[in-house]
Amino acid sequence: MGAVRLVLGGAILGLFWGGFQRTIATSDNVNGLCDSSPCVCDQHGRLTCDCNNENQELTLSAEGERKLSPHTSRITVRNCSSVILTNSSLESMTGLRSVELINIVNLTLFTRSFVLSPKTSRAIISIHSANIDILPSFVFRGDMESISFENVHIGLISAFAFANLAGTDTLRLEECEIDSIEEQAFKKFDVNYLHIIGGIFGGNQVPSRAMNDIEVFTTFRMDGVKIGVIRSSGFVIKKPKTLSIQNCIIDTLESEAFDITTRGGVLIKNNRFNNVAAGSFLSIRRDSTSIGVSLPEITFTNNSLGVFEEGSIMFDRSSFKPIIDNIFINRSCDCAMLSLWKNNLLNYTNVYTRFYTGNTQLSINSLEAIEEGTYLCINYDNNIINFQDFDIHNCTMGNSTIIWLIIIVGIVLTIIIGIVMIIWCCRRRRNHVQKRWMSVPTTAPDVVSKKNGVIGRDGSSSSGPVDSRITMVVPDGRLYRETEFHVIVEKAEPLTTEL
Ligand SMILES: *[C@@H]1O[C@H](CO)[C@@H](O)[C@H](O)[C@H]1NC(C)=O
Ligand SMILES: *[C@@H]1O[C@H](CO)[C@@H](O)[C@H](O)[C@H]1NC(C)=O
Ligand SMILES: *[C@@H]1O[C@H](CO)[C@@H](O)[C@H](O)[C@H]1NC(C)=O
Ligand SMILES: *[C@@H]1O[C@H](CO)[C@@H](O)[C@H](O)[C@H]1NC(C)=O
Ligand SMILES: *[C@@H]1O[C@H](CO)[C@@H](O)[C@H](O)[C@H]1NC(C)=O
Ligand SMILES: *[C@@H]1O[C@H](CO)[C@@H](O)[C@H](O)[C@H]1NC(C)=O
């Protein structure tokens, strides 16, 4: 009897225990994270978690006690200090429509964190105001209609972070601060719109092939982005109908930084390029499938350039008709440099042929002169002035001043020479006059010429003797201008010299 009771009791206990276990499992399965603060679910499969900025760590996972339901359709997480989205935690949700993570101080992602079920379609991923230390490789996969990061700080985008996207319409990074980007961070996917708006892209540098083999069907746009160095082939992008680079501050562009084939026009305006190597824009070309009758335009206006060289602003002339205008050379104007600068930007025969040696693409129109637009530099008063005005006010004017100076100096010299001449002439004349009229009392004693017995002044070369007795002293010549002297010398002595 006692034994029977014991067995029965054991059986009941066992049943009870089993039931207890099953209820826990069931409740786990059905509700999971839905039942645990700070999250709530509704009957449409929406999961909303709001940590209210309490210092709370929230883990989103497909496993464990507080797991995500596979029936979740929308996930919204707000105001949490730390959110961890584990491996493949979204992969079982076949009806997932959107994931929205807002105001997360520390968002931790793993490889496959955003891998979606193959049955999911057109999901929206949106991360707003968050810090992500590392965006790991292969974090995304699946049919995502749009991925947008807004006001997100990302320490590092690993290689292949953005890869395996299928059917994505828009990839948008807005006001994001990205400290570092690995090569091939954006690798081989296609989107309609790829927009990078504001913020800092890549800290010091965008490495070679940071964006590699991306097909953008409609628009690739960079607007107001700050970038350090863009290495050669930093952006390798195909097919955009419009390509626009606007309001950006780019420290250095290496040669062929943008390797982009477009199916339409290109707009590069209001940017600041501090250092631009030759041929930085040369690899922006027209997609070979879109050869139309007339060339699309590549517009390069209102950009500021710091350091550049011959061919820095060189475009593929067989792809585009370049329009270059309003170039601000962010340097002090220099009369000697103005035409050189302009020539470096517009006339780059040498460099162009160097880039195209052995290439048949050098078409005839490639070296046609580009219409000259406005060029600006900084004048001596730190104002921005166009080349022409500067030239007129400082260079041409400078030349005329020099001419005036030369003329004035010339005139002064002529006057001085004239005065000197006049003085010299007067002296000469006076001397002459004095000589003419005062020939008698010269310093050199006269000599008696033996010729015809006449006394002359024909020099001491004739070997006549000096006779001091014929020297006459006459007072100032002026008084005796009109005086004629008739001097008769009579000699009684015999001549001492032989005849
Ligand atoms: C939570 O985030 C929302 C924005 O999603 C914000 O408006 C709200 O003020 C935040 N709540 C707290 C308590 O910070
Ligand atoms: C995530 O998955 C990858 C590969 O499946 C694995 O190497 C990694 O350790 C996983 N990480 C975590 C946190 O489970
Ligand atoms: C963010 O959270 C992860 C995991 O909890 C941690 O390893 C990391 O140090 C945190 N980062 C910051 C900046 O707090
Ligand atoms: C030229 O670009 C600068 C920024 O570089 C901008 O502030 C200015 O408004 C632009 N001017 C025009 C006429 O677009
Ligand atoms: C010109 O260059 C100086 C420094 O070199 C910089 O501070 C300034 O913003 C630049 N101006 C423009 C319009 O690029
Ligand atoms: C372009 O530069 C070359 C020398 O580099 C010069 O001979 C030629 O006249 C220049 N053409 C124009 C249009 O300035």
Automatic annotation (TrEMBL):
<feature type="transmembrane region" description="Helical">
    <location>
        <begin position="402"/>
        <end position="426"/>
    </location>
</feature>
<protein>
    <recommendedName>
        <fullName>Right handed beta helix domain-containing protein</fullName>
    </recommendedName>
</protein>
<keyword id="KW-0732">Signal</keyword>
<keyword id="KW-0472">Membrane</keyword>
<feature type="signal peptide">
    <location>
        <begin position="1"/>
        <end position="25"/>
    </location>
</feature>
<keyword id="KW-0812">Transmembrane</keyword>
<dbReference type="InterPro" id="IPR032675">
    <property type="entry name" value="LRR_dom_sf"/>
</dbReference>
<keyword id="KW-1133">Transmembrane helix</keyword>
